[in-house]
Amino acid sequence: MRRQVQQESCDNTASETELGLGPCDPSSENATNTNGVSLAFPEGGSQAWACLLGSCLLMFPSFGFQTAVGSVQDYISTNQLADYSVRDVGWITACLVFLTLFLGVQVGPLFDRYGPRALLICGSAASFTSYILLAECTKYWHFILCLSILGGVAAAVITTVSIAVLSHWFHRRRALASGLCMAGSSAGGAVIPLILQTMFPKYGWKTSIRTIAFIALGCYVLGVILVRGRLATNKPASRVTIDFRAFQSPRLCFLTVAVFSFEFIIFGCAALLPTYVRFSGMSTSVQFYSLTVLNSMSLLGRVLPGFAADHVGRFNVLLCLVIITLIIMAAVWLPFGSRDEATLYTVVAIFGFGSGGWLSLAPVCAGQLCSTEEYGRFYGTVYFVAAFGVLLTVPVGGDLLQSTTPQVLIGFYSAVLFVGLISLTLSRWALLEWKWQWKAKV
């Protein structure tokens, strides 16, 4: 009962959740849990950094493939599935990303109960199988089964565990660790389009996708070896997969709406950017290079803001990134982005940097609103809601792009981002107990 009261006190005191330095921060004392495991976070050391490297490797072919999935979607929409509309093909990638986020709500409690190793082995094997089968796909339902369903389930396991396991090793430096982990997916999103651009014309679909499959296999093997949990896992399995009680907190509700908006825009742009380039009348090479630019800058956006956030506040840095990106989208990308390649590359680079920060900082901000032992479940709960954003964004955006103009699509995404900005601002305000402080380190 005493521990429960302490946790509730932690959750309800804004000053103690700023950087995890309050009295409820286990890293501030030599505390142990009931199983005798130290609750003091290592914040570094060979095992912690090895785990981070493993998580980064796991994210490269799993989440990285999803950030580069636009190159695959545009290829199949002009080849195997040329008879289908952009909206119809969009449902394939939409279901892939949707299942990745939606099933995180199931993976979170499993991670809390069983730890990372068994889950990662199963997820990696399933992901490799999905890539091998994807190379053989020729019909619409083939892609749904292999890429959307099998690939989505596998990615849900790998990505959720890769991020959640960092909460065992980092607290004060969790934003930086999360950014470095997510940088692995940015690297994948930058490298995979370049590989496919080179291999599609020379070797065709099957050989290209099989190459990606074996690259993924190598990353998965190393990642599974390096990643390990630290906290005890022999606690009773939770029957709660979605903690709706968390939504009694206004700050979490507003943050959830913000994350919904961010995921809607990020994966919509990642999946539709090559198609946007094609509808804008630019060359085929720009379709691949634009994704590489986006994800290369996203890599920096996932690392540098994380470093800054550990010093000036996670919410503060995230809020600044959203404001800057919204200005660029509305003032530059919307009116001028489709006019020439130089302008497109510039706005895509800035968008990539900003959106990379959203991806790495949003989970860390969610982690400030719950105890460490519940992080897996709370993370899954927030992204359970966000999953419906990625389910809708590609079909809606694809239909909008095909029936109107590229400018209308960017204007629509700018409006969605504005909603996310307002929600994030309200979440920060609620975290400060409705007492706005410009210099508060949150």
Automatic annotation (TrEMBL):
Domain Major facilitator superfamily (MFS) profile: 47-432
Keyword Transmembrane helix: yes
Any Pfam family: MFS_1
Residue segments, region Disordered: 1-26
Membrane topology category: Multi-pass membrane protein
Swiss-Prot/TrEMBL keywords: Membrane, Transmembrane, Transmembrane helix
GO cellular component, one term: membrane
Subcellular locations according to the entry: Membrane
Domain of life where this protein originates: Eukaryota
GO MF annotations, alphabetized: transmembrane transporter activity
Biased composition (Polar residues): 1-16
Transmembrane segments: 48-69, 89-111, 118-134, 140-166, 175-196, 208-231, 252-274, 286-304, 316-336, 342-366, 378-398, 410-431
InterPro entries on file: MFS (IPR011701), MFS_dom (IPR020846), MFS_trans_sf (IPR036259), Proton-linked_MCT (IPR050327)
Family the UniProt entry places it in: Belongs to the major facilitator superfamily. Monocarboxylate porter (TC 2.A.1.13) family.
Protein name, as recorded: Major facilitator superfamily domain-containing protein
Protein source organism: Aspergillus bertholletiae
Organism ancestry: Eukaryota, Fungi, Dikarya, Ascomycota, Pezizomycotina
